[in-house]
Each structure stands twice: as structure tokens, then as C-alpha cells.
Prior knowledge:
Blueprint (H helix, E strand, L loop, with lengths): L11 E6 L7 H19 L3 E6 L5 E7 L2 E7 L4 H13 L7 E5 L5 H10 L4 E5 L11 H9 L2 E4 L2 H9 L8 E3 L6 H8 L15 E6 L11 H11 L6 E6 L5 H10 L6 E4 L4 H10 L2 E4 L8 H8 L4 E4 L4 H4 L6 E4 L4 H13 L1 H18 L2 H15 L1 H12 L1
Amino acid sequence: MTTREPTQHTNRIVGLFPELLGVGGVQEAGRLTAAALQEIAFRNGWSTDCLSFNDPPGLHSLDVGGQGISLRGFGRNKLHFLVSGTRGTQAFRKSGAHIVLAAHPNLAVAAGWMQRVSPHLQTVVIAHGVEVWKPLAPLRRRGLMRANLVLAPSRDTVQKLIKVQGVPPEKIRRLPWPLNPNFLRLADASAGLPKPLGFPEQGRIILTVGRWDASERYKGADALIRAIHQFGTTISGVQLVAVGSGDDLPRLRQLATDLGVRDRVHFLENLSCEEMAGCHAGADFFALPSTGEGFGLVFLEAMAFSKPVVGAACGGVTDIVKDGINGLLVPPGDQVALAQALARLLRDESLCAELGRRGGEIVRREYQFVVFKSELEKILGECNSGFREARTVRKIL
Length: 397
């Protein structure tokens, strides 16, 4: 028997996203979630809508791992966003099973409102990390608490949901983000990848990637620049490549100039996926001493290229980086320990190779998109009996 084709949609998944067309970890996680939702819905004979609050108004499409995703942007228009989502669920309120997935705690309010209008709805809210490290505003917290299930990508975010937000542990499921299949394919065929203009031609190269905004100085780019200064002439030929944009770039450039390392710190912006992959292929290792990561997709990207990683021992990073196994962890905010960890990898190429090899194995074993999609499908089945029934029918057919 062949898999049943979805000919009549009586069941529906509505995905609410903060932004899908932009740059950043939350945006990338959203794209991967949207791709998984659309594939899961198709396989089970459901329909699906992807609504994106911050993206430009109108219909858009994008590619994730060779799969086309359709979405509707609302240009930050709260009323239109809420009305569209509510209409999408009201149309099916008398029959079928329906799930609303809010891909950020800020959207839990919208999901809760939709559930009030259509009480049959089951709601799932995704938390990422730093946004739940402090108590949410009362309205958003009530929306989060009202959800049937809450998803978190790391153990640290799970604990923050329990201890800071008061979410009952039995309502939380841990679902780590996967690596984008497109990026993994680039890593598996890395020979000949283009390196962007400004990428150093020689020397030992440390790569860091982030959004360099003043509001996100916890990423630690300035700590890496200071480490390059600390090395001085003790370790020759060290280059730092910092990929990313943001309003804090002028300060970081000035810091590099003031420390006399401007010729050894290279700021690259607006890179294509292929150019980003080329940076990973050309680097010796990856470092991001961030103290505010709920997970850390950028670490997975480096691991895909079998590069060792250096991170701060806090937040969701500790789920990904295992000290002495696939990278090195340093105490948060410890400049001396960070410089020592970087120097250790710069001086020991065999250690770099071993840590990188293990990282490559881990990311391909634990963070594949197909694994994420399978786990998400199980969670949706757990959340909604109608979805479980649809999965059972598909298996029988």
C-alpha cells in the first residue's frame, strides 16, 4: 500500500512565527520548524498555514533543505495577524482536530486568544532561551501557562521555564534544534567552497558568528578581540574573522583599532550561505563565548565542518559543547580562561583535529533534520488525539 495522499483537509496546523525571512538563530529555528510542520501536515493529510508577524505583508516562499515553504507576512500589524489566525481555525471549528503552534513566547498571547475563540484548539508554544530567563510580562506569561505544551531546545531553557516562569514540568518537552539540511550538504562537499572577500589568506584563523547588536553584547565578540591582543607576539599569525551585522559593529571596530589589532580582526557582513560555509571550511576552529544562548545553532554549523568549538559554560551551549570531547568550555565572562582555551587549540593541531572529528560525528548523529521532524511529529500526536488518529490511519494504509 502507498501512503495516503492528502485529498481532503479536515484537520489543520497553524504556525505563528515572529519572523522567517530574517537573519538570526530564532529565525533559522522558525524556518526549520515551518518546514517540518508542512511536511508533517502533508504526510498526515492535514492542511497548514504559516503566519509571520514581522515579515513584509503578503505571500512569500523560501527553501529549507530543498523543500518549499509558503508563508504570509503581516508587517507587524497585530490586528491583521490575529484576525487571520483566528479565521483559519474558526473555519474548522465544528469538525476535525486543530493545533496552533506559537514559535515564540511573545506569540503565546495570540495563540491563547485563538483558543478562547475556538476552545477545541490545542496550543503549543516554543521558548528559545534568553527571553524566558526573566519573568515574562503578566499577559505573555498567562498565554504561556495556558498552552497545552511548551517546547524548549535545551535543558537550561527547560529549567528556566520551570523555575522562572512557573510552567509545570509535565507540560514541557525538550526538542533540540537541528542543523539546516542545506548547510549539512555544503559541509559534506566543502572542497572548492568560495571564501568571501576579506577572508584572510593565511595564518591560524578563529571564526565567530553572531548578531553584533548593542543589546546582545553578551555574545562576547569584544572578549575575542581582547584575546587576539593578549596573544601579541607569543602566538604569531592569529586572525579573527567575525561574521555578522549589527549596530555594535562601530564599537567593535574601534576596539580592534584601539588595541592595535585591526589588521588581525576581519569583520564580514551580508554573506551568502555558500560564503558562510566557506568561512567554516577555511577556519581552524569556532569560538563564541556568549553568556546568553538558549541553544546555539552556530555551534552545530561549525561542528558540521568538523571544527572544534569554544563556548561559555552556561545556557544551552552546554547541551552542545562537551568539554574535551568536541570542544572546550570556559567559565562565563572569564577573559583569562578564554585566552587560554584559544591558545591551547592554536598550539595543538592534533587536539583540534580530534575534537573536530567528534563534533562532526555528533552533529550527524543527533542533530539531523529528520530526527527533529520525527520528534516534533510525536509531540503533535501527544498534544492532539485527532493527530494521533491521522498517524494511525496513515500507517495502516
